[in-house]
Amino acid sequence: MSDGTTTEGRTPTAQDIVGRDKDPHLDDDNPFEAMMARFDHAAELLDLDPGIYRVLRHPEKQLIVSVPIQRDSGDLEVFTGYRVVHNTARGPGKGGIRFDLRVTLDEVKALAAWMTWKCAVVNIPFGGAKGGVVCDPPTLSVGELERLTRRFTAALMDILGPESDIPAPDVNTNERVMAWIMDTYSMHQRHPTTAVVTGKPVEMGGSLGRREATGRGCMIATTEALKHLGLPLRGTKLAVQGFGNVGSIGAHLLEQEGLTVVAVSDVSGAIYNPNGIRVEDAMNWVRDHRYLSGYPGAEQISADELFTLDVDVLLPAAVENAITRKNAGDVRAKIICEGANGPTTAGADRILEENGVFVIPDILANAGGVTVSYFEWVQDRMGYFWDEGMVIDRLNGIMTNAFRDVLAVSQRHSVNMRVASYMLAIERVAAVHRLRGLYA
Ligand code: GLU
Question: Which residues contact 155 (CB under 8 A, 6 or more apart)?
Fold first, then answer.
């Protein structure tokens, strides 16, 4: 099995790249491998300079920290946290922090690189970073979560900063966690520093429209794809995997555009109603009952079945590896909008392409979140805040331009949207590397 660094220590040749991409033993479940397989393929098509190729294959910084906290019981427990800064050629590292039991260094490395490509696809002046703490948030009290967040932030003081590395929410982190990060960082700096983190509460330097931004970006990308394929909005059937911030808001906004949401899922399973599920009702149900299961007016189906439904659009909005070699052949949707990061494995990509599924890749589809994070950072640094209409207009502009830029590359090079988005992103990052040269 490849460890993702097979060419380490020597200049890779085109054969290395092609060889890796065709490697039948590629570890499809490893998100770092999945990211690298796509990166290698796009780098080969771009005929990327081998020196820049090597630089981009290595994250700039990888930090592993032990995070001791006192449990409510009085016991001390030590958690493991990671922060990876993949690349800062185009601007400060940018990317979320997730709290999850599945967090690994390989995952954080992949997610950090995806942030580099994502920020380049939407052409905002950030590089890529990501962080995570291995923990199970439902088992932590609010006080424990706060102590964990503050101690993790303190451990990252040397690398965080509005000019260097700016976290944001991700899986199982939210505005409240961002407020603790901002406060901890500011106490160390001895002055309030709002721009060190985005996705904060609006009352303390957050941006209007940030909470909805990722879902809104998915909505914009999906409507662009439907228009491009000549499909209508009204009555188009949508299934959504994941009913957190991205899935629920993405579903709600697409419903408002006229789509019919026939299935949604969360960790408790999936619910299905071919005549449509009212997203607001499902959101209210989850607010009152925590999970979707038991929702009246829809049939309970298995989480796996959701991917095989007769729908037009699939919105995977949970975590990595939802669509794999095993189930990609069963997908009947015409469009997949990747609300999550890395929901499709590299092996599944090929099957989907053969079957003519139009995939809006994660680094384009879910870039609305980091785009409004950029707006938040700009507003914090100006100390002057925009109304929601301005945020939405500018997000619309950036997302539609990015969709069209990727589509243009895809048509020019006869490649799918995923390969095109990597080619666009890598070329933008490489161009800055060439201009900046190498500090020695
Ligand atoms: N966690 C989100 C993502 O994966 C947002 C990152 C950000 O706003 O910095 O894109």
Answer: 65, 67, 81
- Collapsed DSSP state (helix, strand, coil) of residue 391: helix
> From the CA of 84, how far away is ligand 1's center (Å)?
14
Q: Which domains does the chain have, with CATH numbers?
A: 14-56 (no CATH), 59-194 (3.40.50.10860), 213-365 (3.40.50.720)
Q: Is 155 in the pocket of ligand 1 (CB under 6 A)?
A: no
Q: Residue 167 corresponds to which amino acid?
A: P
Q: Is 127 in the pocket of ligand 1 (CB under 6 A)?
A: no
Q: Which of 94, 109, 118, 130 is catalytic?
A: 130
- pLDDT tens digits, 169-213: 999 999 999 999 999 999 999 999 999 999 999 999 999 999 999
Q: Kindly report, residue by residue over 129-146, the tens digit of the pLDDT.
A: 999 999 999 999 999 999
Question: Which ligand 1 atom is the nearest neighbour of the CA of 95?
Answer: 9
Q: What are phi and psi of 157, to 5 degrees?
A: -50, -35
pLDDT of residue 24: 39
- The pLDDT value recorded for residue 27 is 61
- Cα(253)–Cα(7) distance, integer angstroms: 44
What is the distance in A from the centroid of ligand 1 to the CA of 9?
32
Q: Residue 354 CB: number of other CB atoms within 10 A?
A: 10
Known catalytic residue at 22: no
Question: Which of these, 432, 368, 366, 360, lies nearest to 398 by C-alpha position?
Answer: 368
- Give yes or no for residue 7 having a pLDDT over 50: no
Answer yes or no: is the C-beta of 60 below 6 A from any ligand 1 atom: no
SS3 239: strand
* 95 Cβ inside 6 Å of ligand 1: yes
For residue 286, pLDDT beyond 50: yes
Please answer whether residues 346 and 34 qualify as being in contact, where contact means their C-beta atoms are separated by less than 8 angstroms: yes
pTM, two decimal places: 0.93
